[in-house]
Predict the structure.
Amino acid sequence: MRYSGPMATVRVPRHTEAEYLVMAEASEERLEFVNGEVFAMAGASPIHEALVMNVGSVLSGKLRGRPCRPFGSNLRVKISETGMYCYPDVTVVCGKLELEPTRPATLLNPAVIFEVLSESTEGYDRGAKAAHYRRHPGLKAYVLVSTDAKRIEVYSRSEAGWTLTEARETGELRIEALDLALPLDEVYAGFDELTAEAAEAVAPPAP
């Protein structure tokens, strides 16, 4: 197993999907499965969790009464084309749920995925994870939300491939797959205050 997060990582021999499912059912932690490796999901920072809550809240409001629904980070998603099992920070499903009858039930038809970046997971979210996401034909967009600046990136599927749109600091960013605009001031509500508070909390005491 490989543990991913702020602490050290440990690599062991690769596992099969069947082995992963047995491990995941027995584990009290959320385990992801990527390229034959198992990752235990590490704890997140207050800033990360606040942004996840903000994204979920904004989407819940904007999608209310529409055929697309957001789900939180405890929903496991499988990318059937590659065999990856993962727990995105926020997943949007449009239409009826398609589930694999494992325990816990596993979503098979994500339409849009949101990942809130952190120092320990940014490379993974931009690299291996994103490569798997792009293989799923039903995924229309995946969105990266920064925790070190007010910046959101939307990767959208088009006939020409994947295109990137980005917004920083203010304004809004359109997600065509959901027919909505994501206001940065709502996603980053409280961000400046929480960042300052977190920095103060971990600062060394004055001599």
Remarks:
- Residues 1-12 have pLDDT under 50 and may be disordered.
- The chain is about 30% helix and 30% strand.
- Residues 44-202 form a domain with the tt1808, chain A fold (CATH 3.90.1570.10).
- Helices lie at 17-26, 46-63, 122-126, 128-135, 184-187, 191-202.
